[in-house]
Amino acid sequence: MNKSPKEILGEFWGYTEFKGSQEEIINAVLRGQDVLALLPTGGGKSICFQIPALSKGGICIVVSPLIALIQDQVENLKKRGIKAIALTGGIPIEEVSDLLDNCIFGNYKFLYLSPERLQQEMVQSRIQQMNVNLIAIDEAHCISQWGHDFRPAYLECSQLRGLLPETPVIALTATATKQVANDIIDSLKFIEPLVVTDSFSRNNIAFKVFWEEDKRYRLKLSCCQLEKSAIVYVRTRRLSQEIAQFLNSSGCKATNFHGGISKKEKQERLYLWLNDKVQVMVATNAFGMGIDKPDVQLVVHYQIPDSLENYFQEAGRAGRDGATAEAVLITNATDIERARKQFLSLLPDTAYLKKVYGKLNSYFQIPFGEGNDQTFQLDFNTFCSVYQLNPMLTYNTLQVLDQNSVIALSESFSKKSTVRFLASKEQLFDYFEKNRALVKVAQTILRTYGGIFDFDTKINTRLIAKKSESAENKVIKVLEQLQKDEIIAYSAQHSDIDITFLVPREDDSTINVFAKKVKERRAIKTDNLDHMLAYVKNQKVCRNKQLLKYFGETTEENCGICDICLDHQGENRSSKTMKDDVLGILEQENSTSREIIKKLQLSETAILATLRELLEDGKIKINALNQYELI
């Protein structure tokens, strides 16, 4: 385009100046230098590769881990009149070929693809025919086994270096420790790269941890006083539905977002939130990547994340407009134990991998030295039942075997059957009077799963069959009949999956090839969670200081706005001063405790204690509106 980076910035993005290290990074890329850019969430990473790509002739190849992130960036580019193509899953091979031809001959500026696409020979061949001006590896921490979101397929990114040895590479991430950064540089074979690290400090975000037995009450307090928008992160689809319903019933407009809802529903719900029709988005952790909503006032973690990297990236979606915002984690002692159980106890070790791999070979009667390239249909529930295996641990084990190319699982493996009852209990009574043959199975489902009238609930047809003393195929027929009669909403995904053995059976020797890597991954997961829990439990050091230290950055100054800093400020103020401050506010107007806390910007604990003392002293009282007022 023969325009300067600033001219392109103004023409397509409407900005007059770059922020942070963007200009330094862009200039290095234009010189042909490899770059590792470590920029915090909201630091404008995409501009760092999009502008230099637009400054030169040819096309930029962008590798990105999430389909939603790819689609969002491609749509944003198209809205700016920039030609971009996305190669995501599910596209027929003929269409893939046509899209790649467009990249060669159609004057496109960006080709977005997943790392898995790089493994296809046709894709590699066509890339070599393209005039590629830049390779961008987004979310580059995924390439490192020390990263919080390691994806083995990301190691294929290094193939681009071999295919296009003269093309500069830029790797970008918002969360990387020094160890992860070094791993990225080594994996991508960088030569004398520029490594840019902008400060991870987010001075406008107040990081807070609240210990609460009644977590919903704390969530209600946080969300119902909002002026702008919020994100509430949970770990399960079911909980996202429950929390959204709870907030709506509490007078706070909310919706939920997770991978199980349809594309149309996702678009509708995202539109409502982006356009402030609802204030709160309750979501699982994939939500937020690539979504540009700068005025998020509050991010709540309702459950403990598995690492500080994930926590910081998600919390960093607050306050991207520079306004004051909060990142709140609500927890209790039960959550601590639950996190350890969820993240660590279900990680398979080498012994369990060998056990499951051996059982698979026995199940399909595969002789020693044979089995490669053979595909079988596996009834997962039956397999676990026959060998008395823990289903969740076995599920994770098959995933590990798949990631390490011992087996290949069909895409349906991650899907589950779900049921939600549509009929009322009164309607059910009448229906069962006329359909007695369906009663036993239906009642077993109702007794086994709670909340099945309110939510799409994952079910195990084999478990239902066992409890109802029926054959599994009978259970499935009953579900199909209930669906036909509009008694239930039923999404069928039976436990049969295709499993392809990729290597000959060698028993323990097959697992020993990557056993060390599995052990290291387990140690990394344990270390990540230990750091996360240490952050949650630490009540002495400024939250901002803790986070910056973890990412290799030091600061002498406390943030002054996190829960720990506010507690220290409260401790340093005399009881009389605190009382005078509260009384001064109430002289102006009657206020709730939440309003007083917001105005004083001091420790909530100290202010609530002061209010109790003033009540006991007879200086103030609570009125019918739950406000404090002077007597």
- Estimated radius of gyration: 28 Å
Give the quaternary arrangement of the chains: single chain
Overall structural class, as computed from helix and strand content, comes to: alpha/beta
DSSP, total strands: 21
Number of domains: 5
Mean pLDDT over the full residue set: 88
Strand content: 15-25%
CATH architecture of the largest domain: 3-Layer(aba) Sandwich
> Superfamily at the CATH H level of the largest domain?
P-loop containing nucleotide triphosphate hydrolases
Distance between the termini: 72 Å
Global geometry: globular
Number of helices in the DSSP assignment: 26
- At the fold tier of CATH, the topology name of the largest domain is Rossmann fold
Uncertain parts: none
Structure, described:
This protein has 631 residues and is an alpha/beta fold. The protein folds into five domains: 5-197, P-loop containing nucleotide triphosphate hydrolases (Rossmann fold, 3-Layer(aba) Sandwich); 205-340 and 538-550, P-loop containing nucleotide triphosphate hydrolases (Rossmann fold); 346-414 and 497-524, Arc Repressor Mutant, subunit A (Orthogonal Bundle), CATH 1.10.10; 418-492; 573-630, Winged helix-like DNA-binding domain superfamily/Winged helix DNA-binding domain (Arc Repressor Mutant, subunit A, Orthogonal Bundle). The protein is globular. The termini are far apart. The mean pLDDT is 88.
